[in-house]
Amino acid sequence: MSAEDVLKYMLSWASEDSHRGRLARALQTNMGESAELQARRVGLLSIYVQREAKSGKGLALI
User: Fold this and answer.
1) Alpha carbon 48 to chain centroid, angstroms
2) DSSP assigned state of 62
3) Whole-angstrom Cα distance, residue 59 to residue 44?
4) Among 49, 47, 39, CA closest to 5
């Protein structure tokens, strides 16, 4: 999965009423306009991506 695909996947959670949904919305709108905050959001969202990949939800992280 390319980096662009991973980012699209992360942003697809923006409509959810969950922690990862709030993170995705904050990432999408650049809330706080801080590169450090954006990097932390990407890091946290990548943990969710990794968990889904390990759980066998059909994600191919290549």
Assistant:
1) 7
2) -
3) 17
4) 49
Dihedral, 38, 39, 45, 51 alpha carbons, nearest 10: 180
Is 41 exposed, middle or buried (CB count within 10 Å of its CB: 0-12, 13-18, 19+)?
buried
Convert the pLDDT of each residue in 21-59 to its tens digit: 999 999 999 988 999 999 999 999 999 998 888 887 656
Ranges of beta strands (E only) in the chain are none
Taking CB atoms within 8 Å and a gap of at least 24, the contacts of 43-47 are 44/20, 45/10, 45/13, 45/20, 46/6, 46/10
Encoded tokens for 57? 């939800």
Q: Can you read off the two tokens belonging to residue 19? A: 């922690």
Residue 62 has pLDDT above 50, yes or no: no
Contact call for residues 20 and 45 (beta carbons, < 8 A): yes
